[in-house]
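Good morning C.,

I know you're traveling, so I'll keep this short. The sequence:
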Amino acid sequence: MSLRKLSSAGFTIVELSMVMILIAIISTATYTFINTSTSQYLALQQEGIVFGDLAFQSQRIAQVVRGLTDISDASADEITMYAYFYPKDSYASLIRYYSDPTKTIFYADVTTMTANPPIGTPIASTKKTYTIINPFYAPTGISTFTYLDSYGATLAMPITDLHTIKEIKITLAVPIKAPVVNGNDSISLLVSLRNRKTNL
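The tokens, ready to paste straight into the viewer:
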């Protein structure tokens, strides 16, 4: 009689199998959730770092452009100008902002001058190329540089008289993967030119 009670109190193979299956399902779901959440968190954290760098570099470029003394070339995707790349510089440098042919990296070529223009000339041997934004993203149909006149109207390209440029709108972007795949984060800044001879 006692043997029958002991036997009936145990678990059957079917019951044990169901419990194991349930544990496996719960474990898989928990692992998937934690793994996905961790991946999303790390992706968002990385995007935050990239956007923070974009914000910093945008302000840095705006500061350089704001203090330019003259523009030698202006197009939708690049600008060449005389400006102070570092606040401690004694003379303005010849600076060119541009992206690589694939539009995935944004650069600055900086060439020091013998003196401030128009007296000084660029010292070719001092030219340095800086990687400003990597990765960089150029949105379709949006210009990196937009040039405005004294009335705030956009100047048509090509600009025949560079002295009509009174403001420059700078639009920079970086690619993002989360939460929108193949999206981008962008920053636009409107910079008034304060140091040009025509503005003094």
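Safe travels,
E.
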